[in-house]
Amino acid sequence: MRKFIYLFVVVLSLTLSSCVTTRNVQQTRQKKEKIAILKYEMARNIVLHKDYTRLPDAFRYLNQAIKVFPNDPKMYYMMALAYQMRNDKKEYVIYLNKAIEKDKKFFDAYNALGIYDFEEGFYSRALDMFTRLIKNPLYMHPDVAFFNRSRVYLKLGKLKAAQNDIESALMFSNYKNTVYWKSLVSVELTQKHYLQALTSLYKMEQYVGPSYYIDYMRALCYVKLSMFDKAKEQLDKIKNDDATYYALKLKLLKEINDSNTNN
Prior knowledge:
This protein is an all-alpha fold and 263 residues long.
């Protein structure tokens, strides 16, 4: 009986000891993970705020975080952005690809690679990358992919294809993105589709509100259509509280007056 009790006590002690050890290991692991997440957030803050004075700290924090989370794609993506700040293109691409290796659905890395290819002049690869994102139903920002692909088409002189993509970008952004609207108007003006540009400007005002940009671009379209009175009506809306557009207004008014004088 005593032998049995002794064995029971030994087994119980070992079990309790094992539980304590397991709990300690878990607590240690959790502590390391919390510290690693904190390090990542510190690095992210440095990178996103473009704090070049603390960039070495960002690399150190990310290296420490990656040791704890070796399979987390966002760690490698942030490392890529840190290398981008350092203007190290080789490492930038390496870490973007590492992020994709860790998660084939990490779409931010695909988009970044597409932008890199575009900026480096690899237009075919850029088109392929943005097209893959557009066709992927899981990608949550198709407007970004459409807009980025439109930039490639513009570079290649494919204005109609660029216009189609910008219009798609507008649709997926619920017509609220000012940058997309301005790009669409620019493409229409390049094609000398002045009436079409006027229509876009009126739609832009409906969705994002009035602006001196809209007033000036309308006036410019009217000038191109030789509708000078309508152009002056638009220019009258631009006040001298905006130095840039007021200067453009005065320049365009001079062109109108010169044109009227010559006629």
